[in-house]
Amino acid sequence: MDDRRLEIIIGNLLRVGVLVAAALVFAGGVAYLAAHHGDRISFHSFAREGSSLRSVPGIITSAAHLKSEGIMQLGLLLLIATPVARVVMAVFGFGLERDWLYVVVSLIVLAVLVGSLSRAV
Amino acid sequence: MLPASVPNQANQNRVNAPEDVVIDFGLLSLTILISMTATSFTFVVLAISALAGFLGALTGLGGGVVIVPALTLALGVDIKYAIGASLVSVIATSSGAAAAYVREGFSNIRIGMFLEIATTIGAVVGAFLAGRFSTHALAIIFGIVLLQAAYQTVFKGSLENTEPIESDAMARRLRMGGHYPVDGKMQEYGVRNVPAGFGLMFGAGALSGLLGIGSGAVKVIAMDRAMRIPFKVSTTTSNFMIGVTAAASAGVYLSRGYIDPRVAMPVMLGVLAGAFLGSKVLVLAPVRTLRIVFALVIVALAIEMIVNGIAGRI
Description:
The structure holds two protein chains of two kinds. By secondary structure, chain A is mostly helical. Chain A is built from four helices and one strand; from the N terminus they run αβααα. By secondary structure, chain B is mainly alpha-helical. In chain B, α2 runs antiparallel to α3, α4 crosses α7 (about 195-210) and α8 (about 215-225) runs antiparallel to α9 (about 230-255). Chains A and B meet through α1, β1, α3 and α4 of A and β1, α1, α3, α4 and α9 of B.
């Protein structure tokens, strides 16, 4: 398997990930509008307190209770995971080619991503 | 819960009282709408985002650069929610387009992955800084970055490296050179100045994390100008890197509450739909004219952002 083929497979998997994420966000969006269509909303001032949608466990709990905002956020979380999946697959891809230098490079990038995302766990 | 359905949210905060928010001096004469119903907000944001995604795909600038000013200037959305939603849309377009770019055979995964060490670390630093800066400061920085992007769009500024160059010692050790199709034949290319490119990429990552944009323009400068990588390879590799860079700040954004699904939902769906349409009509579009029109819109938005930032209205 050469670089190109592997990359095309990865690219197609990413597209599937994006489509599933978009479907979740869309479904959550429809449910949200069905329940809240007439609500007056304003995002004029930033309010960070007390949202369960700021952590991965909170998002999963909220989506499992079929809350519309939780479903939308789960879709967004899946979307955020697609580039992470791409780096994971690159680690394996370079490993198959026995290109250890780039296995290490990919692992460093993965460590930064996991370090950042672990803040939301 | 966020204070979503408090109708007179604005009145609790006299600095942003409704009578202050009509921007009447600007080039675009935008009016900030303090409160809308969830339905109208969703559909207005969907429409804006679809247009941004469409133009972003046609001009190669990405949608993020206009989403943030449109949300903050036209709809009065706090810049932190706007950059959170924009960051999400940046990931969507990058991951969604990956397969197409790979098939064209231009992107170089080794160059991309190596430079991502710099962009992801930069992005985490930038995302932390976003929490330290005032919204006014963010608006002003955003405006300046927009002006640069507009300039680069019109005066493409590529060296158009047609002469193949040899890799220098460091790039050789990192096996960064590659080949790409030119007029049906495979053309070898080399890479130079890896440390300079790496440094610029850290800056590109920091801007991405600070402002929720892909900062593709800076990434292309780093590869095309500093590292002497062919323009086509630079732009497609940049697209590959944008999603990974954005994911590095996403964790920080998420834990800070910048990603509100009620804002990010219409932005993500709109940008994806627009970008998809844009990629379909790309062949038929008068790209040069579009680039200039888009650049003018961006300049107008940049000036609005800077003026409003200085006046303390954003």
